[in-house]
Amino acid sequence: MAIAVINPNRSALNAAVRACAGASAADRQLDAIIASAVFPALTSLPVLGTAVWRHEDGTRVRALRYSGSRSAATTLVPAGCWLEDGGNSIAKVCGPEGEWEGIHSVGEIAICIAALKARIDVEHSPPEMQKILSVRDR
Fold this sequence. Notes:
Strand content: 15-25%
Order of helices and strands: HHEEEHEEEHH
Mean pLDDT: 87
Distance between the termini: 24 Å
Low-confidence stretches: 1-5, 127-138
Number of strands: 6
Structural class: alpha+beta
Number of helices: 5
């Protein structure tokens, strides 16, 4: 029996899903929460403004507009997964490990929710489970 290693970033991804679900519109603060969850190293950089950080070399790092841009939101879909349009403000991310839905009145935020949920499961499932799932789907 393998013991799964708990990744502290999982809680940040869950918090980002909750923030997305509670949002009423695209928002740069929401984009910052998403970026920090997906790229945890951002939390160690000095904050210059909402969704803007200063890199060690002095350059600025800006979060994409995940909550307001479809192309930015789709970058959150994990490798090996794909996005399907569920219609009626429903986004669905599909992959070998399963399907994840995001429901929100703002389509881009629905994509963010689905993609973040997929990241939680795909990136944090124990390697043994990933092997089982890949063999099962053959």
